[in-house]
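ingest -> fold -> write
write: protein_1
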Amino acid sequence: MSLKKTEIECRFRRSVESYEENAHIQKKIVKHLVELLEHYCPLEINRILEIGCGTGLLSEQLKARWSSSELWLNDLVDAMCIKAASRCGITAQYCLPGDIEKLQLVEIFSLVASTSTFQWIEHPLETFGYLSEHISSGGWLIFSSFGKDNCRELKAITGNGLTYHSLSEMEEILSRYFEVLHTEEEIYTLDFNHPLDILQHIKKTGVNAMSSHKTWTRGRLNAFTREYAIRFLKDGRYPLTYHPQYFICRKL
């Protein structure tokens, strides 16, 4: 596992218990992705893989809609996998913990679904190609990720953040292996009372894409607070932008 993925695993492992209470935008994203699943996917689905299952927000919905289907759960953090499996009444044999870019899949799936995970992938072209090999002909890849404006305030101040792709860039990658039937994107803004509340929010959800190599000294925190106020304070509130994207793809 790369150093970057090791850091990601540590962040999410620390947020296992705090994630769901603070994942306000992620819950909205799951709700909309489920609406897309219900619109596009047939009622008969043989076997499902969820990538980045987290605490089971989407897993629970997948299990409810396709109760007779096999539901396999993957997450970088084994504790997340176990938590989601327990939530859905799934035995541990259907948990596939580990980095999806390194995981050796055996089964063929009718549906691969994911929310708020693929932005972490380091090699999207190779990963989507590998996943396509484990999706049946006519099967589905349906997921959400994040676009270029995601957490833009943090990146503007710290200079650190993930490399996000535009809808067209993602569609170009996906079209190598899938028919891309639908794409869309949204902008959500969460407002906070103080910039330090934003740091607490991203810590509790594990989604902090800022470099962990620098220590948050009192001086750095004060500078961060001042800069956030100068650049983004509006009507006494401090915004944080989320930029979810949605993709409906069918195996060629």
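write: protein_2
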Amino acid sequence: MKICDERIDCGKAFDWGKTSEDYAKYRDIYPEEFYRKITDRGLCVKGQKVLDLGTGTGVLPRNMYRFGADWTGTDISPEQTEQAVKLADAGNMNIEFQTVSAEDICFPDESFDVITACQCFWYFDHDKLVPKLHRILKPGGKILVLYMAWLPFEDPIAGKSEELALKYSPQWSGAGETRHPIWIPETIYNYFDMEDHEEYELKVPFTRKSWHGRMKACRGVGASLNEDELAKWDAEHRKLLENMAPERFEILHYAALTVLKKK
């Protein structure tokens, strides 16, 4: 499913379905600390019903299933939810996945204790979505917004990989990340109060193969380049890694979370 949004990549179309297989293989990379930051706040744990918006291949609910929450995941891409179902079934996990845009979700009032949005919050129509999230959360319910990104100006391998992605996808607005709190639209504060936020550093381990797959699975590469562009990028990135990266290495990232409580 092609998506065009003037707020993202100058309106260049992208389709997560084009990269779902790579996404499933190479974007399940959050370290244990990422999940512990969530559970230490008493979120997404046993006794809670959790809705994961923009679930993709179900990375968040699948990795947090062990903590006992009852998970539902939604995503606009049928290819992404297809991968999520396969991976959850392979792990004998009872997770419900729905193919639906965040703005079109339909759940009864006060259905969930927590709503999560990982790597996706900026994609949504917040004026339409936020009142709905307020309605379907229980009293005192919370939204947890999550993000993790490599730091191209601090990590040389990440920086060179990003430069190459921009060579083929100069409109890509996901480049150039620095450490900062997660952006929260003003409309949120009509319905929710900011309860907590944190930004912290992580070193994420990769091999040449897995980092190549991680880069390919990003919006600026696999989700948007045509077949010819992707083949050229693939060859150049493999050569780049052969020349500058050891077989195993770590990439410096920062992670961030924001907790919003229902008014």
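write: annotation protein_2
Helices lie at 20-26, 32-39, 59-64, 78-90, 126-136, 156-168, 208-216, 227-244.
The mean pLDDT is 97.
pipeline exit 0
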